[in-house]
Design goal:
The protein is of the alpha+beta class and 493 residues long. It has 19 helices and ten strands. It folds into three domains: 148 residues, no CATH class; 138 residues, no CATH class; 64 residues, Arc Repressor Mutant, subunit A. Strand 9 and strand 10 form a beta hairpin.
């Protein structure tokens, strides 16, 4: 019996969120720290002739920055600037950039030249140089750059493949497969130092072992980490010997080699190029006056002023007025001019939006953590999560996350990453909210003061914290202890 085939057409309604090119540009600029923003602007100036650097005016003031210039003790902005903006080389006030002119935001004693700057090669740049030497497609290089930027200070990749795929699609407009991402990651895992790009401590150690010359001892090391990694970290020597059927001498020889491996390859790159040791350039300047007034400004000392090219806008106006009876060449010229001017205006708008978002986010952090900015005492930091800042700024949580992940602030008490001001809260049975940061600090002090011959168990630590006014459960103590990388009691002897 001959079977026929038929086609069935169905309709399905699907809601897909897509970002416009302007939104993607704004997100990319938002991620950049100050130094990379400068590089990005200079690259745009070279690429787009419709965008030009304006002449600096020393007596100009930034209207937007003035909104966040000073805050009184009640947290209300003080906008009494008293100085007018001069047009100078600008055609209208709309052309004046409102992300650079902020001289009035600094005190007389605090000059922009005093902000530390670094010529060191960064952790990211060092790995990117190795990436540029690989035979990859432009799309693969883009994936590689994003993966490198996603590594933590230890050089490990803590994000899941699914998370990175989502981030690439939402924030970069890049759609790829898990297989392609895994392939590019495998390329990065061949970079120096060995272990870079690993997704776990076990994978990090295995990568380093595999680079060794083949030998019977190498195979034992691979077996210990590949099959008994948890037992090895817990120092269960007898269990490993029994499980792998090896002698004590073989185990001791392999263990001696394993202890030479580096579980934090990113931090081994040295002070000159280590990501977490390089000199930091703050993105924000926060100055607390004696009367409690807090001044906030952006550190834009090397960010050039931007405006539309007068020559391009005049040519565009001329071609627009003479639309009638234009030749094909004139129409092509008009299209070129319009595209460049639109791109330049879009870039200027994206930089302005970046400044508004940064200032709004930092101002919210100051308002929520005002006692710290007034006194500089870490114990005054209250529990604060991304949602708290998002609700105060009316911005999306993902936006707050992108700002806080890569930005630093210079205060009267030192330079801090924005992540420093975020910590979870622990709510007691009585409804009292305690700072997890404070609990962890007390926990570290308890462990530091213990008798190393008889270290405290988690139950004992829980009792001690309860006596100090922090009534938390033993399992919570164990969780915080693990987050602080403090071993169990028997391993602290």
């Amino acid at each position: 019996m001959v079977q026929g085939s038929r086609q069935v057409q169905t309709q399905a309604q699907q809601q897909v969120q897509t970002l416009s090119p302007q939104q993607i540009l704004a997100v990319k600029l938002l991620e950049l720290p100050t130094l990379e923003l400068e590089e990005r602007i200079h690259a745009e100036l070279l690429d787009n002739p419709a965008l030009e650097e304006g002449k600096e005016t020393s007596d100009a003031s930034d209207a937007l920055n003035d909104e966040y210039n000073t805050t009184d003790q009640d947290g209300e902005p003080n906008t009494d600037s008293g100085e007018d903006i001069e047009l100078g080389d600008y055609r209208t006030e709309d052309d004046i950039p409102d992300y650079k002119l902020q001289e009035n935001n600094r005190s007389k004693e605090d000059r922009a030249e005093d902000i530390p700057f670094s010529d060191n090669v960064s952790f990211y740049e060092t790995l990117k140089e190795q990436l540029d030497m690989q035979h990859l497609t432009p799309e693969q290089k883009q994936l590689g750059e994003y993966l490198i930027g996603s590594l933590d200070d230890d050089g490990l990749l803590r994000k899941s493949t699914e998370t990175i795929l989502d981030e690439l699609a939402i924030y970069q407009g890049v759609y790829t497969s898990a297989e392609e991402l895994e392939h590019v990651l495998s390329v990065i895992q061949d970079f120096d130092p060995a272990g870079i790009g690993a997704r776990s401590l076990q994978e990090c150690l295995l990568i380093q072992i595999r680079r060794k010359e083949d030998s019977p001892l190498k195979q034992i090391e691979l077996d210990i980490i590949g099959k008994c990694c948890e037992e090895f970290t817990r120092k269960n020597k007898d269990k490993i010997i029994q499980k792998l059927n090896i002698t004590e001498e073989q185990y001791n020889a392999a263990a001696a080699e394993l202890t030479k491996l580096n579980p934090r390859p990113g931090s081994s790159m040295g002070e000159a190029i280590g990501k977490n040791l390089q000199q930091i350039i703050p993105d924000f300047l926060v100055e607390t006056e004696d009367d409690g007034t807090i001044n906030l400004s952006l550190n834009n000392r090397n960010v050039p002023e931007l405006r539309l090219s007068r020559e391009f806008t005049e040519l565009l106006d001329e071609h627009t007025r003479n639309k009638q009876n234009q030749s094909k060449e004139s129409k092509d010229a008009l299209m070129f001019l319009k595209q460049k001017v639109d791109a330049a205006q879009g870039f200027i708008n994206a930089v302005k939006q970046r400044q508004q978002t940064l200032l709004s986010t930092m101002q919210a952090i100051i308002d929520l953590q005002r006692p710290f900015f007034e006194e500089g005492d870490e114990s005054l930091l209250r529990p604060m999560i991304l949602k708290d800042v998002a609700e105060r700024t009316k911005l999306d949580i993902s936006t707050i996350s992108r700002v806080s992940n890569s930005k630093y602030v210079q205060t009267n008490y030192g330079i801090y990453p924005l992540k420093f001001f975020f910590s979870d809260g622990y709510t007691t049975e009585n409804g009292e909210e305690l700072s997890v940061r404070e609990i962890k600090r007390i926990l570290k002090e308890c462990v530091a003061s213990e008798n190393k011959e008889k270290p405290y168990t988690d139950d004992e630590l829980a009792d001690m914290l309860k006596e100090k006014g922090y009534p938390i459960a033993r399992r919570t103590v164990a969780k915080y202890r693990q987050q602080l990388n403090i071993p169990v009691a028997r391993l602290r002897r």
